[in-house]
Amino acid sequence: MINHIYKPKGERIWRWKFRLTPADGKITDISLGTSDKQVAEKKRAERLRENEHERAGLLPSKIVRNAAHRKLTEHLQDFLGDLRAKGRARDYISHVSHYNKALIADCGWTYPQDVTADSFGAWRRSQSKSQKTLNEYLTSAKGFFAWLVAQGRMPVNPLASVTKGDARGRQVRPRRAYTDSEFAALLAVAGPQRIVYLTAALTGIRHGELKELCWGDFNLNGEKPSVTVRASVSKNHRQACLPLHPDLVAVLLQFRPANVQAGELVFKGLVPRSEILVGHLNAANIAKTDSQGRVVDFHSLRHTFCTNLHRAGVSQREAMELMRHNDPRLTASTYTDTSLLSLRDAVKKLTVSPSQLASQILGAGGHPQSPPVADSRRVNDVKTIANKGGKSLAGAAWQILSKIERWCAVEVSNLRPLPCQGNALPLS
To answer: What is the pLDDT of residue 169?
Structure first.
């Protein structure tokens, strides 16, 4: 153990040299800021006691104690600066700043020690915001305090135990997709923003992501035209390469300036603010809110992209990749406007109609051609006929019934004809 004060030759200020345990590694040598030996000894004793209390867990670290005397708004500026240094998108940083500043002001948090889960809970209960928005506030705050903990400025995250609210079925502003006629009308009045709306509706790229796209992100001349959404731009912080529709490629090639630099923004000053979009909606005679209370806004273009993928018969997995979703439920439910799906056309695609199915199973009078099978040997005989491609009516019925989920769960020996009318099978 090394623990003593000394005054370097030719200097007036006392210094403290120490290494309290071998585990401390290097010897620490600090100035005590005084030329009086008794004062220096007192400072050494105080710092030694403080150091021992920290080791025993009786006292927070000096970094935590110093941070406790700095206002949360000052810590927040450091946090935002760190996000900028990591290359996070401007819109993301803006949202984090807004959410945390609002919480600090509304919850009465001045210093780190003022933050509690109870105070956040009381604030959340008093809000009329949507559950989704409240969850975004919580996520931003948790990220901020987790950063403070990682920096050693707070011992624990005070909001770590707070869970998100269930946003399902509690949307304040449910969105819908644009219909084909509405989208055509929007493009007709959009002016300079037409290229932005078209890109959003044919790629699903978000509002904030479009603002950050550079010409270097687009590959318009290759065999497989694409756009790369960089990780620093993407909402989920993952890079994605998306294919481009041929019509969009043609429009972008015409829109691209000559001798443009790869680092130049594609839609600089063109991504519309809310008031500009509302003006376009009014000019196109598109109702902002429909009779069901659903709204259209810029993000509805992403809903339009997803809905049109399903209308075109794109598989669920492919649509999920193009939407850059981790949860297939988002693709299938949240972002697909089922009111625009052609369910009647989907039914017409069935290869076997109910009438055909009934004619093979039932006779002309609507009764089964053969009585219910009760003998196990008879069941085996029917299975054998079906497996060998036999043409008997019983064998054909067995093959058809084996494909119907409702009948599959019933043992063949217990099959009973369902009540029918006419020459059709019951649908429920």
So the answer is: 55
